[in-house]
Write a structure and sequence with these properties.
9-stranded mixed β-sheet; alpha/beta; two-stranded antiparallel ribbon; globular
Length: 260
């Protein structure tokens, strides 16, 4: 398994409000020795110009369910518990410890991955007792004005949940990283030190976006795990990922038509 771990970044803010040491790691799934081939098979279907919208949605669900969500679940704390089995025998079992999770939706490319994550968490053993999950929304639109690219916040709805809290963002693509960086800043302003960690799961991303997220989370001292299906070559002149997925939002919502 290839895990690229950035060295801890030491920064001392002028007001001393954030920790000086930050942990950031990146997992590139298509370089994973055990799962790389399976990941590339699903990525091929997602990337192909011949994949219609229903097939794209199906492959996207498969990708998150098979590869991204298990990585998030592995970050949740567990503990051993002694129980009696139905046979009346002693057994040392395991349960999830109490967690507060905010699943953040950035609806630019559809809500499917976020909704899937919430459904997956709610189906875990004893979720009502041990895991508190809530959905937050930050609607950030990308605005292109000639050569200028900006991001505008149209709407934000962030609930109050317990602390410490884990943030989970499932966004299909990590391009410049500016949209997610803006969202992280809004989360930091809202929750501050209540944020324990950040998990970001994307199908594809590029180095520029990774560095943007690293810089932002380092500034706030947020422990971060970034999981990508693949790290692509880069961005074109319109800041689109290449080779990328095409217009992922249109492909999820069903308005895109494949080339014949």
């Amino acid at each position: 398994m290839e895990v690229v771990v950035a060295k801890p970044t030491s920064k001392q803010p002028s007001d001393g409000s954030f920790p000086s040491l930050n942990y950031f790691d990146v997992l590139n799934l298509d370089r994973d020795a055990d799962r790389g081939d399976d990941v590339r098979c699903v990525l091929t279907e997602l990337r192909s110009e011949l994949t219609d919208c229903p097939a794209y949605r199906s492959s996207l669900i498969q990708f998150y369910e098979s590869f991204i969500f298990p990585e998030f679940l592995s970050t949740l704390k567990k503990k051993n518990v002694p129980i009696k089995t139905a046979m009346g025998l002693d057994y040392l079992g395991m349960v999830y410890e109490h967690s507060n999770i905010l699943a953040l939706e950035i609806p630019r490319a559809g809500t499917l991955p976020t909704d899937l994550l919430i459904d997956r968490i709610q189906k875990l053993p004893c979720p009502a007792r041990n895991i508190n999950i809530a959905k937050g929304v930050i609607d950030i639109k990308r605005k292109e004005d000639g050569a200028t690219l900006s991001h505008i916040v149209n709407y934000s709805n962030l609930p109050e949940i317990g602390e410490p809290m884990r943030i989970a963002i499932c966004d299909q693509m990590l391009a410049t990283g500016n949209t997610i960086s803006k969202a992280i800043s809004i989360l930091q302003e809202k929750y501050g030190r209540r944020i324990e960690s950040l998990f970001l799961g994307s199908v594809v991303g590029v180095q520029q976006g990774i560095e943007t997220i690293r810089d932002t989370t380092s500034r706030y001292g947020i422990k971060t795990r970034l999981v990508l299906g693949a790290i692509d070559d880069g961005l074109n002149e319109k800041s689109y990922i290449v080779p990328g997925l095409g217009d992922a939002g249109d492909r999820v919502t069903g308005v895109w038509r494949p080339n014949s």
